[in-house]
Automatic annotation (TrEMBL):
Organism: Marinobacter similis
InterPro entries, per database record: Acyl_CoA_acyltransferase (IPR016181), C-N_Hydrolase (IPR003010), C-N_Hydrolase_sf (IPR036526), GNAT_dom (IPR000182)
Residues annotated as domain N-acetyltransferase: 12-215
This protein's UniProt keywords: Acyltransferase, Lipoprotein, Transferase
The protein's name: Nitrilase/cyanide hydratase and apolipoprotein N-acyltransferase
Domain CN hydrolase: 235-492
PANTHER family tied to this protein: HYDROLASE YHCX, NITRILASE-RELATED
Gene3D superfamilies the UniProt entry points to: 3.40.630.30, Carbon-nitrogen hydrolase (3.60.110.10)
Recorded GO MF terms: acyltransferase activity, transferring groups other than amino-acyl groups
Length: 522
């Protein structure tokens, strides 16, 4: 018995994976693939897999330790049973090709701790796949398996196909393919260049299928009905177009913020959104001499009180708060433009601005962050991009690959041209990612506060441009430069419908064989 099983109080069980398992899955995958030429998973792809199709991801647990991981997604048979490679069919590992109406379950990953092999953990995970397939009434399970003995043995055979036939007839054995055949999978074919980094398999994948015995098999011409669904659930969002004005104290500032949180909560909002750097209003409490950078950095002293205020309001008013952004001094002494996201259950998340504008970097010495992460809320995963970040399409794509369906964009612009750069880019992000985008901006003037003297803003809530959405791709809009709140009810399930059966299907139609976003930050 291997050491991990020596404790009689430890229980081995399989359950659905959750985001709290990420560190354990990352460590497991790195142990499994060490020395193979392949790499273990990072946080982003795993977040995308779990958020995109939570029912299809499983972990095998030995007590509190992750000792096995299984990842799947739904896809059409036309794609899954045809030629493909691992990168293109899995969306670079994010499971972003998931089709909620797909008739096959695609297995993109099974890995088991090397120290725990021999206890049929892989078999347990394969059984979970089959049971899920049957619960959903799908045609079957399909994937491309490894052939780790191929590199050493291929010279003895005329072709890869001949070697596979030898394994099928049990003249040879392979620890992966023999196991899969034993578990009821049939060889559908061989896929060259399926995963070129798999050196032992020489890049080949063995195309395998298991057909669900509980459903009639669809013929090649049959297509499932993909329309006529009703999606009733909504997420109510209120975006605050905030008037900059001098304040005499932090308490006065707090009263203004509390008023808007109360308003949106009274209207039964799920989210209230504030603008970028609206906390610079606090500089009006006292006139500060010195440089613009010194004045900006002075607001960092309020960061802790501001975070605590927003967390308290989120709890008191039972609402999720996208708290705009504020200057925050990091442990290394640098200043970041950071958004706080305060959830109504008391959790607080941060999202730094990745791209400070030239103005921010020059006048305020703002540094850029290095992570863009999905944030789990009771309304599904969301993302935050601060103003200029929305003008970089890779960031939104990285968030959407992690399962995000609503992107919040707090912004701060001084005149119309600056504002329209943000607005037009956000509309593009909504279209190309089939995602909702919510903008919240400042209006008014703030004399004697460097780089905040004037504001131009027109807050809005944007949608993709297709029949299920508002005609102009605008769910809500405001009058420019007037303090107000705009509301919209957003239907995340309509996004799923549009992504799967819309007039255009931007996410599904991506050429994963040609391009992808490879995130190198945290």
């Amino acid at each position: 018995m291997c050491p991990p099983f020596s404790d009689p109080d430890q229980r081995l069980f399989v359950r659905n994976a959750s985001l709290s398992d990420l560190s354990g899955i990352i460590a497991l995958s790195r142990r499994v693939y060490e020395g193979t030429g392949m790499y273990g998973y990072s946080k982003g792809p795993l977040t995308g897999q779990i958020n995109t199709f939570p029912d299809g991801q499983f972990v095998a647990m030995l007590g509190d330790t992750v000792v096995g991981y299984c990842a799947t997604f739904r896809i059409s048979g036309e794609i899954a049973l045809g030629p493909h490679d691992w990168t293109s069919i899995t969306g670079n590992g994010y499971a972003s090709r998931h089709d909620s109406e797909g008739d096959w379950l695609y297995g993109m990953e099974v890995c088991v701790d090397p120290e725990c092999r021999g206890y049929r953990i892989g078999e347990r995970l394969y059984n979970e796949r089959k049971q899920l397939c049957q619960r959903l009434g799908l045609q079957g399970v399909v994937f491309a398996g490894r052939l780790p003995t191929l590199r050493k043995r291929l010279k003895k055979y005329d072709s890869v196909e001949a070697y596979i036939e030898a394994i099928k007839s049990k003249e040879q054995s392979d620890p992966v393919l023999s196991f899969q055949l034993h578990n009821g999978f049939d060889v559908h074919g061989v896929i060259p260049h399926y995963l070129d980094s798999d050196h032992d398999s020489l890049g080949y994948g063995v195309h395998l299928v298991w057909r669900n015995p509980k459903v009639p098999q669809a013929g090649p011409e049959e297509k499932a009905k993909r329309y006529g669904k009703r999606m009733p659930d909504t997420v109510r969002v209120g975006t605050v177009q905030y008037q900059q004005r001098p304040v005499a104290s932090f308490d006065e500032f707090s009263d203004i913020v509390r008023y808007f949180v109360d308003v949106v909560s009274t209207y039964k909002g799920d989210f209230v959104v504030f603008p970028e750097l609206f906390t610079l209003q606090l500089l009006s409490i006292e006139r500060r001499e010195g440089s613009a950078a010194d004045a900006f950095a002075a607001v960092t002293h309020y960061a802790g009180r501001f975070r605590d205020l927003m967390r308290d309001l989120a709890l008191r008013y039972n609402i999720n708060i996208i708290a705009g952004s504020t200057p925050v001094r990091e442990e290394d002494g640098t200043v970041h433009n950071t958004a706080f996201v305060c959830l109504r259950d008391g959790q607080v998340f941060t999202q730094p601005k990745i791209h400070p504008t030239p103005n921010e970097a020059y006048w305020w010495n703002v540094r850029g962050g290095n992570r863009v992460s999905a944030i789990e809320t009771d309304c599904g995963p969301i993302g935050v991009l601060i103003c200029y970040d929305a003008e970089f399409p890779e960031l939104t794509r990285h968030l959407v690959d992690q399962g995000v369906q609503i992107v919040f964009v707090p912004f701060c612009t001084d005149e119309r041209q600056s504002y329209l750069r943000v607005r037009y880019c956000c509309q593009a992000r909504a279209v190309e990612n089939q995602v909702y985008v919510v903008l919240s901006g400042n209006v008014g003037n703030l004399p004697n506060v460097p780089n905040m003297e004037i504001q131009y803003g027109q807050s809005c809530i944007l949608t993709p441009c297709d029949f299920p959405f508002a005609r102009d791709g605008i769910a809500a809009d405001t009058e420019p430069n007037v303090e107000t709140v705009a509301f919209a009810d957003l239907r995340p399930e309509v996004l799923i419908t549009a992504r799967n059966s819309g007039t255009v299907k931007n996410l599904q139609d991506r050429r994963h064989d040609l391009y992808s976003v490879n995130w190198r930050g945290e």
